[in-house]
Amino acid sequence: MLTLLLSAGGLGVALAASGEALCEDKQLTSTQCAAVGCCEWDGACFSAVSAVECEDSSGADIVLPTYAKGAFEATWVPGAGNFDVCGRTTSVFGVTVCVTAKAWSGSMDKCNHIAHVLAQLLDNDADGVADDETVVKYMNANTYYLAVPFDEEDEMPEATKGTPQMTGGGAKRA
């Protein structure tokens, strides 16, 4: 699913989405939140229009974060909101990486590796800006996220909304 999405990046994807999809669980700063016309800041970014389609009066449908040039550094936080089923989450250009508690306790290094691989896929030249903003905005608008269980036996509950792309934490096999 992710490969197909990346290959379709230049086709001009429509980015209409609900306020919740654009504003919530994206780890936006207060400035980024304010730039999206249907979001409001109250210690975190929230939709001012709930699940209604967002008509962004500022002209920016989704504001993507940028990072310092060089290696991406993941900042992990406990799962919350739509991703409260996650043991920990991080965000790569607004795309959430959701790991189970078992995956996090099993290998934090492997969780970081998965986040770094996603960052490299989205920003191959490591300049801190998503290489194909249309694709990343589409992923954000449709709440695509990377679901990371520890192994096949680790149950990965789905977020209340969004489109998961399953990967694995790579538990050692006997």
Notes on the protein architecture:
With 174 residues, the chain is of the alpha/beta class. Helices cover 27% and strands 16% of the residues. The chain folds into 2 domains: 13-55, no CATH class; 67-169, no CATH class. Strands 3-4-5-6-7 form a 5-stranded mixed beta sheet. Strands 1-2 form a two-stranded antiparallel ribbon. The longest helix has 15 residues, at 108-122. It is globular. Residues 1-15 and 56-60 have low confidence and may be disordered.
Give me the number of helical elements. Answer: 6
**How confident is the prediction overall: mean pLDDT?**
78
Would you identify the regions where 5 or more consecutive residues have pLDDT less than 50?
1-15, 56-60
- The domain count comes to 2
Shape estimate: globular
SS elements, strand count: 7
Q: Ends: how far apart?
A: 30 Å
State Rg: 16 Å
The main sheet orders its strands as 3-4-5-6-7
Helix content: 25-40%
Largest sheet: 5 strands, mixed
